[in-house]
Amino acid sequence: MARDHGSQIKDDALYEELLDRGESKEKAARIANAKANGSLDHRATRLEDRTKDDLYEEAQKIGIDGRSTMTKGELIDAIRSH
C-alpha cells in the first residue's frame, strides 16, 4: 500500500511509482495529480510507448530546439531533460 503523502498528492501510488522510475518529486506530483483529477491526456504516459510523431508534438509544445532531426530516442531524452 502506498504511503500517504498528504493532501497535496492526489494519487500516492502513482507518485511513488514515478519516483521509483527516477522522476523528480515535482514532476511526479504534477503527473499524479493530473491523472487523479482526470486532466491527464489519455495517451500512454510512458514516453517509450508513444509514437515518434506524438513525441515530436510534445517537444514542439515545450520548445525543444533541433527536434526535427531527432530520433525517437533523442526526443525521449530531450523531453525528459527539459
Give a structural overview.
The chain is mainly alpha-helical and 82 residues long. The chain has two domains: 1-40, no CATH class; 47-81, no CATH class. The protein contains four helices and no strands. The protein has helices spanning 12-20, 25-36, 52-62, 72-81. Helix 1 (12-20) packs antiparallel against helix 2 (25-36) and helix 3 (52-62) runs parallel beside helix 4. The protein starts with 11 loop residues before the first helix and ends with a helix. The model has no long low-confidence stretch (mean pLDDT 85). It comes from Stakelama sediminis.
Relevant terms:
Rho_N_sf; 82 residues; mainly alpha; elongated; Rho-like_N; Rho termination factor-like N-terminal domain-containing protein; 2 domains; 0% strand; 4 helices; DUF7218
Chart the SSEs and their pairings.
Layout: H1 12-20, H2 25-36, H3 52-62, H4 72-81
Helix pairs in contact: 1-2, 3-4
Briefly characterize the structure.
The protein is mainly alpha-helical. It is 51% helix and 0% strand. The longest helix has 12 residues, at 25-36.
